[in-house]
Design goal:
252 residues, Rossmann fold, seven-stranded mixed sheet, 11 helices, 40% helix, binds S-adenosylmethionine
Length: 252
């Protein structure tokens, strides 16, 4: 099951809050070459381009479904193309990424690579969810460990590549970054109930599980997961505190 732009957009207001925090860290300069890694449907890339007058902004993503939506937003200074954020070359005045690098493993290798493609005097600015130990995510792994899903997934669960904020700071320091800012923030969301939280995770964290499960087990997996989440989060409305990591640094 690929990324679903409509499902992802269901919570776009909540997902835009960390974008504003990340944007606030960017040092504005005229005429920057900017890349947005994992641009998705491109709305936030378009907002980024709007906030950086005179810049040339490229959004890359691996999902044809998300990119199909993003292409509709193209205009002079804003374009999108298929590309893997872990394998990007070139040099960029701003390497930007919002809620995407958590999909690539091995951050001790990835972060130095992303800093390597920052041009001298340029900046890296990244936001990624660090919510992997929240009950909404733990129950995905619990469900994946139950039969018949465990056998269908061959025992697979998705490891989180997300490091601690100290580790991101140290990685950036090690590669010679300046103006290092790293922090974690809880975004307080009030959701209707546990099912709304399941709708949220079905647009993101559940995607690789659905991709791996055979068609006939996808709905039963969701039902089992929803049942466990309703037990764990019985309130209505329910508080969904969502932890995210933000880091930024400049290249001398
Ligand atoms: C949670 S969405 C974020 C989209 C957008 N940046 C936003 O904040 O609304 C994550 C995006 O990362 C993309 N993605 C996952 N792995 C990727 C990779 N290796 N290279 C590029 N994009 C990737 C997915 O296709 C998806 O569109």
């Amino acid at each position: 099951m690929p990324w679903n732009p409509d499902r992802y957009h269901q919570f776009s207001a909540q997902r835009a809050q960390p974008f504003e925090d990340l944007l606030a860290l960017i040092h504005l300069r005229e005429g920057m070459r900017v890349v947005d890694l994992g641009a998705g449907t491109g709305e936030l890339t378009a907002r980024l381009a709007g906030a950086l007058p005179g810049s040339d902004v490229l959004g890359i993503d691996t999902s044809p479904e998300m990119l199909a939506r993003a292409h509709e937003l193209e205009r002079p200074g804003l374009r999108f193309q298929e590309g893997d954020l872990g394998a990007l070359g070139g040099t960029w005045d701003l390497v930007f990424s919002h809620a995407a690098i958590q999909w690539v493993l091995d951050h001790p290798r990835l972060v130095p690579h992303l800093f390597e493609i920052v041009a001298p005097g340029g900046q890296i600015a990244v936001q990624l969810p660090s919510n992997h130990d929240h009950i909404s995510h733990r129950l995905i792994r619990t469900t994946a460990g139950e039969e018949p899903f465990r056998t269908a997934l061959d025992g697979w669960t998705r490891p989180s590549p997300v490091l601690s904020i100290e580790e991101y700071a140290e990685l950036l320091y090690t590669v010679g970054a300046e103006d290092i800012t790293v922090f974690e923030k809880v975004y307080p969301h009030v959701m209707a109930d546990a099912d709304a939280v399941a709708d949220w995770t079905s647009g993101t964290a559940l995607v690789p599980y659905m991709e791996r499960l055979p068609e006939e087990l996808r709905a039963p997996f969701m039902e089992r997961y929803r049942a466990q989440l309703r037990t764990a989060m019985p309130e209505s409305p329910v508080f969904y505190g969502f932890r995210r990591t933000i880091f930024s640094a400049r290249k001398p």
